[in-house]
Amino acid sequence: MFEISRLTGWLHELLSSWMPEWLTTTVECVLIGAALLVLYALLALFYIYFERRVCAFFQCRLGPNRVGPMGLLQSFADMFKILIKEIISLKNIDRFLFALAPYLVIIASVMAFAVLPWGKGLQVIDFNIGIFFLVAVSSIGVLGILLAGWSSNNKFTLIGAMRSGAQMVSYELSIGLSVLTMVALAGTMSVTGIVEAQTDLWFIFKGHLPAVIAFIIYMIAGTAETNRGPFDLPEAESELTAGYHTEYSGLHFGYFYLAEYLNLFIVSGVAALLFFGGWAPLHIPGWEGFNGVMDWIPSWLWFVGKAVALSFVIIWFKWTFPRLRIDNLLALEWKYLLPINLFNLVLMVVVIVYGLHF
Amino acid sequence: MEELKNTIAGKFPKATFDETDGLQVVIDDAHWHDLALWLRDAKGFDYLIAVVGQDWPEAYGCVYYLTNTFTHVILSVKVTAASRENPMLHSVSDLWANANLNEREVYDFYGIIFINHPDMRHLYLRNDWVGYPLRKDYNDDPSVNPVPTENEEAIDTTVAYIEAPDGTVTKEERVVFAPEDFVVNIGPQHPATHGVLRFRTALDGEYIKKIDLYLGYVHRGMEKLCESLAYPQMLHFADRLDYLSAQQNRHCFCLCIEKAMGLKVPRRAQVIRVIMDELMRINSHLLFAGTFCMDLGATTMLFYTFREREKILDIFEKTCGARMTFHYNVIGGVAQDLHPDFVKDVKALIPDLHKALKEYHKLFTGNVITHQRMIGVGKLSKADAISYGISGPSGRASGWSNDIRKTHPYSIYSELDFDEVVRTDGDSFGRWMVRMDEILQSIKIIEQLIDKIPEGEICAPVPKVIKLPVGHWFQQVEASRGAIGFYIESDGGVNPVRVKINSTCFPLAGVVDHLTRGTKIADLITIGGSLDYIVPDIDR
Amino acid sequence: MKKNKGVTIQGMPYDEWKDNEYIESLVEELKANGTNVVVGFFDKLINWGRANSLWPLTFGTSCCAIEFIALGAARYDMARFGWEVARASPRQADYIMVSGTIAHRMAPVLRRLYDQMAEPKYVIATGGCAVSGGPFRKSYHVVQGVDQIIPVDVYIPGCPPRPEAMIYGVMQLQRKIMVEKFFGGANRKEKIQKFLDEHPADSHGD
């Protein structure tokens, strides 16, 4: 079985055999940073391709299949084009904030990458409040969107940004509460701790009813958090042309575009972490043979596979449902999801206290 | 009819009558408003079908087509302006809401000022346009009105000509948008306007306070072009008008000319025309379903409905040779005979459509988000629908049974067994369901006819040069979006003197402001989508 | 043409595309001075990216726009070539498919849309109306071809053109992009600049 941790361990030993410790750490940091950025870009490109193929599949079409084998190079071509496309400078805007906004959006998603459990021992930082950190940084993104909408000096972007603000602030609550429900079950906020707690059985099975409710709420709120359909009001094409990023072109728009897909990965990655055991293989207590087979699949593949599968569900939402209206959207959160979520938290606590979980 | 004529003659002794095509009352401007009020209130002429502006050699004026929505009697009133230098008519926009935009159109094209009309601005043409294009003495030298390069300035005021009780007319300035209004331009280039329509929208947060409509972004001047073409030449405009009712529009145009010529169309051609009309209606409603769902964010539906639409286009293509602008109906019949596969293909299509409709309802109609977005949104009462002249499926969703196929059966529709789909909801959901159910009715009509296409000629013999007698004719046909009307006036020559296309979508655009007041931006998209207007049909 | 041996458009060899004399002469003009190897490589890479990632602006005024939707739908599926990312904002679009009649009132709007697009930008005139005014050429309110307002790269005749014709037209555009030069040399930019100088637009636009 192939684990990336073996590769990293070997690299660490190789470097530290002839380098002083401080230099080793520095080189490793740089390498990790570079690897993360490359992974970030590749993953985004893969997601763009994936979404286009999946959506084509739902719509009885073929999707990109001409550029490169199976159309795999399509998103690379898009990237090359976006890189060299003109960045239009506008009159009468706040230039600094206008330029800052896409970076804020993309930084929020890069930072969230740092704590995702990619595999066994394959994690950039592992601190004891990992999941808390994740929830915190992922909400920086909305700041970028608000800035983008406001600084563009365009009425459509402003409406888009305001919608986005209202939506993100509301659904952040649901995300937080359903994360809290699962943290209560795990008893720790450390990402590694949460995964370790699931090596015998995933939380979605372990926590049964409250975990399933939390999962459903998390998926709804997560879709809303990533501004994807049916919650894509901030960029509702038929209403606001392109929403908050209407005025962005070239690379700046590329950042928004990438961040949108990366957020999709992050949301589904967190769902995989909280409910489906992160990198932990599927284990069923008592089925030793089965568990052994499952262990043969590398842990990073488990994580990425789960995340992609959950992303598929979110993409499925987008291409099935019509868009909500802003008042329905807020009513859904404040009148339904939030009370259910609070009740669910209590339910989960009861389950834990009386040891009713598996 | 005779009784109505006598009553009018008794009440308005100045009125004269003309009976080439239905009853026409000719009256001067001074008595027009009284006559209109009396016709509406005492005689129940509650639906203003069309306002046809005209430049007669003696005077400028208008022909108003009115109908009673219970007896379906059509009456036309010809009103002429007193002065040729400064033509003025009394507005009837206070009686029929539909007159508002129609009179602005006449002002735009003929320069006739409507007294007491609240909003006398250009509708189609820019404010800096020189001259009135449909006047006979219009100077069409391109240097007079060159292609503009400057953007239009948005003007927030309008003028009204108000008549004082003593008969003096004064010009008044009126405010459209106050300086503190947050005005957003929706269109002309906007994904949800289905073409190039422009709404200047005053917003209060997410709520819409007022919409000001701008037309003419694809105004192609068809009516003027027709005046310089022979009758068979100008038929092709009908296909490009509302390209999703190409067959019905052209059918109507042909019917109008045939009526004037007194031509009898062979039965085979009539049956073919009806089948083609109904296929076109299905085609159009499928496209509506797709684009409407796309506006609501359910993009996938578009691809499903286009899948079925392509099958219909295949059938059209085999017979007509084109996917969109068919040029199939000609004066006296149809252009080509049916393709040998026609019957087989249509029979194969019908079960597919039934299956597909089930799928659409499963995917979209039953969805809870769909219900939230559509039910109760953009509610139009029956009285308003009639006043605004919202014919077709949108009007039928408000409980107004206005199907021309039933009220004034043309071609062979009187022999067919089909139901007029009427709902009473009046909201966007009703408009959606009416169209979905109309597909079923169209299938029913096709099923009745497909095995009974008689043998025979496909086109009546027509003279090489077609000349219509002196007179005027008006013909309506139920197109995909409502009643399309063609008005032709001839002086006996090869070219018409005036062709007026009474667009189906024009009233639909006019009602948007009424329906969207106080709703949200997202509702504007729902309402616009459910009304299903086609901008080239509005602009002509 | 030996010089373009390696160039393929959507997997089709260049030689199968030699049916357009105008582009052949354009290629001759561009390649007259020869190219540096490194620059040539980057040119190729950039052109490959640009040609294979053409995002249209959702723009349509009349009948041709419906055919454009049909082009995106399942039977013709322009997504195969990567053209399905239709952007509603001109800032993010690569080409504008002028599908439909352009009336006088629309002309400044279209020009403004064109000016709002980011370089590199291309224009395809689709259908008789956009090419020359089509059936409405004699009208008082119709622009006789969009090339009076904006520089056009490809013309697709038809009323409306079939989706196949549209695919062919966009492929011709791809081919034109493939032989472009990003670094130095004769450039289409100069031609466009010349056109824009001759057709000044409204100065208020930004």
Topology:
The complex is a heterotrimer of chains A (358), B (540) and C (206).
Chain A: H1 4-18, H2 21-58, H3 74-83, H4 95-115, H5 130-138, H6 141-151, H7 155-186, H8 191-196, H9 203-206, H10 208-225, H11 237-240, H12 250-275, H13 288-296, H14 299-318, H15 326-353
Chain B: H1 2-11, E1 16-18, E2 23-28, H2 29-43, E3 47-55, E4 60-67, E5 74-80, E6 88-90, H3 99-110, E7 113-115, E8 157-163, E9 169-175, E10 182-186, E11 198-204, E12 207-214, H4 222-226, H5 231-234, H6 236-239, H7 246-261, H8 267-295, H9 299-320, E13 329-330, E14 333-334, H10 342-365, H11 368-374, H12 382-387, H13 392-396, H14 404-407, H15 428-450, E15 471-479, E16 482-490, E17 496-502, H16 506-516, H17 521-531, H18 535-539
Parallel strand pairs in B: 2-5, 6-7
Antiparallel strand pairs in B: 1-2, 3-4, 4-5, 8-9, 10-11, 11-12, 13-14, 15-16, 16-17
Chain C: E1 8-9, E2 12-13, H1 21-31, H2 37-52, E3 56-57, H3 63-72, E4 95-99, H4 107-116, E5 122-126, H5 127-132, E6 154-156, H6 163-178, H7 188-198
Parallel strand pairs in C: 3-4, 4-5, 5-6
Antiparallel strand pairs in C: 1-2
Helix pairs in contact in C: 2-6, 3-6
- The CATH class label of the largest domain in chain B is Mainly Alpha
Strand content of chain C: 5-15%
Structural class of chain B: alpha+beta
> Which shape of chain C, going by the Cα principal axes?
globular
Number of helices of chain B: 18
Q: In the CATH hierarchy, what is the superfamily of the largest domain in chain B?
A: Cytochrome-c3 Hydrogenase, chain B
How are the strands of the largest sheet of chain C arranged?
3-4-5-6
Low-confidence stretches of chain B: none
Count of DSSP strands of chain B: 17
- Summing up helix and strand content along with how strands pair, one would put the structural category of chain C as alpha/beta
What summary fits the major beta sheet of chain B?
5 strands, mixed
Q: Which fold name is given in CATH as the topology of the largest domain in chain B?
A: Cytochrome-c3 Hydrogenase, chain B
Please name the two chains that share the biggest interface, counting residues whose Cβ lies under 8 Å from a Cβ on the partner chain.
Answer: B-C, 49 and 46 residues
Shape assignment of chain B:
globular
Average pLDDT reading of chain C: 77
Portion of residues within helices of chain C: 25-40%
| Radius of gyration of chain C over all CA atoms, rounded | 17 Å
